[in-house]
Amino acid sequence: MKGAENTGCLTWAYIGDLHFTGNVDSCVMPGDNTEDGSAAQYASIRRGLDGLNILFHAIPGDPDRNS
């Protein structure tokens, strides 16, 4: 996964202390995945997930709906 575009903001994801010993088959993203549901924000998520060869399911939260 490539780093974020130079937006002037520090962006990061923290996943830690998992202690699993096998392959990951799927991923659930439990809501509030974007700030305002814009196409650009979803494209950024897509770029990050494209490198994963697993099934994922995103549950939309309030800000994930473009109003």
Descriptive account of the structure:
- This protein has one helix spanning 39-50, and strands spanning 26-30, 55-59.
- The chain has 67 residues and is an alpha+beta fold.
- The chain has a two-stranded parallel ribbon with strand order 1-2.
- The longest helix has 12 residues, at 39-50.
- The protein is globular.
- The termini are far apart.
- The model has no long low-confidence stretch (mean pLDDT 78).
List keywords for this structure.
67 residues, 1 helix, alpha+beta, two-stranded parallel ribbon
How does the SSE layout of this entry go?
Elements: E1 26-30, H1 39-50, E2 55-59
Q: Please bin the fraction of helical residues.
A: 10-25%
- What overall geometry do the principal axes of the alpha carbons give? globular
- Give the oligomeric state: single chain
Number of helical segments with 4 or more residues: 1
Share of β-strand residues: 5-15%
How many whole angstroms does the radius of gyration measure?
13 Å
* Class derived from helix and strand content: alpha+beta
Largest sheet: 2 strands, parallel
- Average per-residue pLDDT, rounded, comes to 78
Strand order of the largest sheet: 1-2
End-to-end separation in angstroms reads 29 Å
Order of helices and strands: EHE
| Count of beta strands | 2
